[in-house]
Amino acid sequence: MLKMVRLRVLTGYLSSVCGLEEDDLIRVLRDDAPKLADRARVLAALTAPAPDFNRGQLKATILGVLLQEETSALPENRLDEKVIEFEAAVVERARSLDFTALRKDDPDRWHHFDTYRSVLEAAWGDDGQVSPDEARLLGVLRTHLGISRVEHGRIGALLKRFPRPAARSTPPRR
């Protein structure tokens, strides 16, 4: 793991990382691994809004993939593969999302999906960007309507906004 990555991990955990050498960072990571890997802490990081909406979505996907692993860890190249596989599966499942059938079978659920789709589309707007305030509102609306992150991805895929076209051709940045 690069020193920069260690610093990113520990910046939110320690009151200060100033003056810590690489050996110190490794020691803290090793000694405090159970605290750093605490499920509540990881879930809080997963749900914390990111200033960049797309980066936040990628972060949530990465953490979701890692939480599915028995050890909650993967080598970087395998993590990239798993994230791409997950995104492809979401896009594939989006193709089977039939709003017409859902409207007939479950009008309340259809209304939730349609409302969220409409607000998500407005948040992306013409520039394809979601502001931090819009991201927080989308999070609240998603929770209120019972829309999961995967369903959010499926709706985004239907709108041709998930995954971002650039994300398909380049590995995720961390």
Radius of gyration: 18 Å
Instruction: Report low-confidence residues grouped into runs of 5 or more.
Output: 166-174
Q: Separation of termini?
A: 12 Å
Largest sheet: none
- Assign an overall shape: elongated
Number of helices: 11
* Rounded average pLDDT: 84
Report the count of strand segments.
0
| DSSP strand content | under 5%
Count of all domains:
2
Give helix % range.
over 70%
Secondary structural class: mainly alpha
- In sequence order, what are the helices and strands, one letter per element? HHHHHHHHHHH
Structural commentary:
- The protein is mainly alpha-helical.
- It contains eleven helices and no strands.
- Helix 5 crosses helix 6.
Summarize this structure briefly.
The chain has helices spanning 3-11, 22-31, 33-36, 39-47, 53-68, 76-95, 99-105, 107-124, 132-145, 149-158, 165-169. With 174 residues, it is an all-alpha fold.
Detail the topology: elements first, then pairings.
Layout: H1 3-11, H2 22-31, H3 33-36, H4 39-47, H5 53-68, H6 76-95, H7 99-105, H8 107-124, H9 132-145, H10 149-158, H11 165-169
List descriptors.
174 residues; mainly alpha; 2 domains; 11 helices; 70% helix
